[in-house]
Amino acid sequence: MKCYFLIFLLVFLHKLQAANFHFSSSAGNDERTAIQAQNPATPWKTVAKLNAIFATLNPGDSVFFMRGNIFEGQIIVSKSGAISKPIVVAAYGNGSRPVISGFTILSKWIGAENKIFECSSSRFLSSINMVVINGVPKAIGRYPNANAPNKGYLNYEQSVKNVQITDNQLSSYPNWTNGEVVIRKNRWVVDRNSITLHEGNTINYISGSHYAADINYGYFIQNHPKTLDQQGEWYFNAAEKKIGIYFDSATPESAQIKASTTDTLVWINNQSNIVFDNISFEGANGNAFEINNCNNIRVTDCEILFSGANAINAIKCADVVIENSIISYSNNNALNLNNCPNSIIRNNSIKCTGIFAGMGKGDSGSYEAIMIDGNNNIVELNKIDSTGYIPITFSGNGVTIKNNYINYFAFIKDDAGGIYTYNGFTIPKINYDRKITGNIILNGKGAGDGTPDTASLPASGIYMDDKVNNVEILNNTVANCSNYGIFIHNANTINIKGNTLFNNRRQLGLVHDNVAPDNPVKKISLINNILFSKNSNTVVAEYKTIGNDLKYFGNFDSNYYCRPLDDNFVLNISYVNSGTYFNSQPDLDGWKLMYGKDKASQKAPFKIASYEITRLTGTNKFGNGNFKDNISGLYTWSAAGNSIVSWNNNNILDGGSLQISFSKITGTTNRASVIIGAGGVIANKTYILRFSLKGVDEHQSLQVFLRKSQGDYKDLSERKNILISASRTENEILFTAISTQEKASIVFDVAEQERPLYMDNIQLYEAEVSPIDPDKTIRFEYNTSAAKRPLSISGIYIDARNKPYSKGSYLEPFSSVVLLRRQKMDLETITALPIYSSGGFHNNSYNYPGNNSSVKLVKRQPAKSAWAKILVRNHHPKQNKKYLLTAPGR
Asked: For residue 16, what pLDDT is reported?
């Protein structure tokens, strides 16, 4: 009797203490007792055994899987822990993390035809979403292939509701019935649909989403044996439970081929206080983790690889923590947390999410790295690389998105942001306490293929979409995105401060359009941001509205509008007044004058030449360019018939000049064209146009280009804008002819002016030029770590704020800088300065802040001379010297 009592006491005491249970697929035995399984030397074997005993676990108990072992199947969590005593699933022993696998290794391949091999298995489910060959995931077979033109998208011309598309070029053979049609239904949806009938050039399908197919978008076919023609491509026949694979060399037996045969690796429903630590999960056919109606679920130091849908899918769960984990190759989303407040996603590496078109879900919330919805959430210190659509989408209040590094995204779908939120409900929510701070976002690519406008690549760095409000965007870096660095679209009450936006197609966009006509852009605070365009053809900022309310956009000041290769026309402005659209491209001073904003904002510290002339060929193509006696060789035209060209001999420029004026101002957007005969041009040859210009009204502009003189009058070059100033300016423009024409014209397009403007010294020469690489002068550096990073530089640089950098300088954590190299004042530098020799040189001084020097023309030369005497005075406090140099006139 005493013996039985002792056993009962031991069991009772065991129940009061936390227990550790061990599992080993290599050394385990499921027949062992619970007492034995608590000894690492006598573990259980399978996940099935864990599921059988999970409900008997107590708060504080732990389950340990042996490192270096692979366990097949699905873990079903059927018991909760306590807040202070969670149930822990972790690793023991030495070696690599234990693996919970949903894969089956495929074997017994049978050769079919055309290098296709087939394999059957009773373990196959109704679909296969993940196939890995020698550790590399493979896309399902498709026609056309992804490396075909237009990235393998065909175009359809007609669609019927959400059930049918017609491609006039589609053949009836092969017949694609029972395959899948992947349709780019719009910019943000790539939908996977089952084909019910292919007849002629029409495909009927069962839609994978509620989105209808917009016409003139793209599609391709997949999951059909006739699509297989590249190594590793595969298809799955669900009815026969058979997979086919294309192998061009050897046979599939020569490789390790694995297919996903378990839908979910971890299932947690209505359980709480569970921890997964140091476990690897791979090969889920659907979601690796499915977590519903749970609290306090933690996934730490884990790997989640090769998920057929989402790595973690959590719905209505509070206090979810996912940190220090590696998440790679999720076909749909990596982390999808829907209605999950008080959650943390921290310090994870998330790679290759939604990289295969047609293998993610078909709705809009797909191909994304992190989707998180709920109040009081934190997403920080994550490294997110290669995301097919959006890296981070968030919604809710009390949200912080901080110090994440995002690289390479929106290459499968677009109309995207690296960090994105949307509030486009009929009655928008009023949000509060949302911060996007210290993130580094690079290389939003855009995905034009399969759309009607393949040249459009709308991928922005930070994108606040329809009706979003109350967000702080602080100290972020965005670079090399195909659309805006920061895009505020029909949104309001946004604080944008201390950000660096570099080499995006447009650095900043504040846009109100008809998508949300009743939600104007307003209450924007734009303070102390660096907006830096590396190239002369990229806009610094764009401010557009369907009203006449630009002055109400908000408070703008102390920003840096930098485009050192050309600091004119750095903004695009668009508004509507009395039903008429008005567009302009002012420089910074013009913007300040027009709207009273950015009073303390500045341009780049100095200018950079974009090319160097090596040789001018032939003579001036417009021989009357100095207008000495008349203005023959040109005429004007305007739709309103109000433009006048005349000869002015009042020495406004250099003797006689061309005067352009308007007999009346129509009050519309009418323009006049001044057309000048210029002889022939040759395709791909470069031409230098030079002219002197003086206006009366400040901050206006004219547009200049080459055009055919006869026939359809098509443009022969890019159109370029020139600033009109009340002060005389000397202008030089480089054109490249797009076709050969015997008769070409120089065209100056001028908007209606209240008072005349004047032109002189017009020259057009064929030229040989050497482009100057801006990367030799402009340098972009960033730091994605939590520690200071030294800058490896030689020489002296300055940033946009004119702060010097040299050897020994460093970057703060999660920060960036755009540096401009300070040049020595030498002959090479002098040749790049804007000094003109048309009709004699002019006594102008040029400040050159690159090394505290100035340049002054000290001797006039005749017009035919190619040289000018230049006095260089070095104002360095320790080197107050003068140099007399000879340099080419420009």
From this structure: 52
